[in-house]
Structure formats: C-alpha cells, structure tokens
C-alpha cells in the first residue's frame, strides 16, 4: 500500500492531533452523559400508573397515603422515575408479608 502525504505535517504530529481531537470529543460526550444521568426525569401520572401496572385511582390513593412521593410541577402532578422504581420494590416486599 502506498503512503500519501496530504499536507506537509509529520506522521507523529498528525497522530497527536487526531488523538487530541478524539479525546476532546469523548470527554465532552461523557460530560453530557453524566449530566443527563444525574438529572432525575419526571414522568406523568399515566406513565407512573402504567409502570406500576395499577389504575390512576390506585395511584392517587397511594400518593395520598404517602406510598409514592409526588411533585407538583405547575398545574401537573409528576413522579420521579427512580422513586417509582424504588416504590415498586417497596410495595412488592410489603405485599409478601
């Protein structure tokens, strides 16, 4: 295979330049990924009920008695997806007793 020089730059300089660009892009992608994972996503009542496989009235009752924490965002009631997942485990263990 023939070696072609695209510009008057040494092979070592080209490799280090490419490595620096790749490193910068990977670090930026990791930072964005870390920010999105640390932020907890809110889900709607309908999605929370579907995730728990319960009806909306049951979800309302569980919210009233404190089984599942809810948050009011504007005029809407929202649930944190991680807390809903945690409540699923809590509810399952309490039902086994």
Automatic annotation (TrEMBL):
<dbReference type="GO" id="GO:0003677">
    <property type="term" value="F:DNA binding"/>
</dbReference>
<dbReference type="InterPro" id="IPR009061">
    <property type="entry name" value="DNA-bd_dom_put_sf"/>
</dbReference>
<protein>
    <submittedName>
        <fullName>DNA binding domain-containing protein, excisionase family</fullName>
    </submittedName>
</protein>
<dbReference type="Pfam" id="PF12728">
    <property type="entry name" value="HTH_17"/>
</dbReference>
<dbReference type="InterPro" id="IPR010093">
    <property type="entry name" value="SinI_DNA-bd"/>
</dbReference>
<feature type="domain" description="Helix-turn-helix">
    <location>
        <begin position="46"/>
        <end position="84"/>
    </location>
</feature>
<dbReference type="InterPro" id="IPR041657">
    <property type="entry name" value="HTH_17"/>
</dbReference>
């Amino acid at each position: 295979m023939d070696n072609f020089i695209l510009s008057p730059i040494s092979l070592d300089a080209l490799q280090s330049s490419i490595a620096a660009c790749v490193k910068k892009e990977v670090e930026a992608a990791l930072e964005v990924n870390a920010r999105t994972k640390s932020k907890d996503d809110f889900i709607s009542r309908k999605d929370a009920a579907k995730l728990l496989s319960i009806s909306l009235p049951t979800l309302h009752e569980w919210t009233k008695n404190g089984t599942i924490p809810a948050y009011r965002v504007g005029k809407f009631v929202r649930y944190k997806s991680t807390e809903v997942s945690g409540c699923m485990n809590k509810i399952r263990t309490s039902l086994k007793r």
